[in-house]
Specification:
The chain is an alpha+beta fold and 187 residues long. It is built from 4 helices and 9 strands. A hairpin with a 5-residue loop joins strand 6 and strand 7. The mean pLDDT is 95. The structure holds flavin mononucleotide.
């Protein structure tokens, strides 16, 4: 075992998703590769959505108790920069994008491979992030195959990757001091 990040662990990344919620200032959304199925009972579908605490969307989901997930389709790489490199804390970031609102007021994106509306059942504190257990209240199937980060990286271009590397380094440094880790709890 030589590498602890990437490699086989990257196989656990979900398809690229835009996770949206809303607050007094309006809707906002972020990119996320941590959205996982969490129910075997078809009439009670759930998702587990892991959002970093530093993200504006994290706070909106916690306060509103609702979110919407758009599973990005192949060809929607253009959403990664506006939603994944900028924060809604620095100003509205949905301008010019193709989006609409769910009945709860959460943003969903046109052309997605699928859309899911959900309500938070419980949030689990991971230290650096919160894992939101979400009850699914509505789904819309879309068209096109899901976009994966492994494939998107090949087309987003050098400028994006440079900005992402810089942001990731900052985010990782912040997370390192906060995340719950082996030996922290009773387990
Ligand atoms: C490829 C990619 C994957 C990402 N995966 C996650 C993730 O799994 N969880 C998360 O909270 N943020 C993730 N992010 C980071 C957020 O999208 C990013 O911090 C965003 O600027 C937050 O916006 P906000 O502050 O408006 O919520 C990812 C970003 C990119 C580009």
């Amino acid at each position: 075992m030589t590498r602890l990040g990437g490699g086989v662990l990257s196989l656990f990344w979900s398809p690229l998703c835009a996770v949206g919620s809303h607050g007094p200032g309006g809707p906002n959304a972020q990119i996320c590769v941590s959205v996982f199925g969490a129910s075997i009972v078809p009439e009670r579908p759930r998702l587990l959505v892991v959002l970093w605490k530093g993200n504006f969307t994290h706070d909106l989901v916690r306060e509103a108790g609702t979110l919407a997930v758009s599973v990005l389709a192949e060809g929607q790489e253009g959403l990664l920069a506006p939603l994944g490199l900028r924060s809604g804390r620095d100003g509205p970031k949905l301008g010019g994008l193709d989006w609409g609102l769910t009945p709860e007021g959460d943003p969903v994106f046109g052309g997605a491979a699928g859309q899911v509306r959900g309500r938070v059942i419980e949030g689990f504190d991971l230290g650096d992030a919160t894992a939101f257990l979400v009850g699914v209240v509505g789904v819309v199937d879309g068209r096109g195959g899901p976009l994966r980060w492994q494939a998107a990286q090949r087309v987003v271009g050098e400028a994006f990757l440079a900005r992402w590397a810089e942001k990731s380094a900052r985010d990782r440094a912040a997370a390192a001091g906060l995340l719950r880790w082996l030996g922290d709890g009773a387990g």
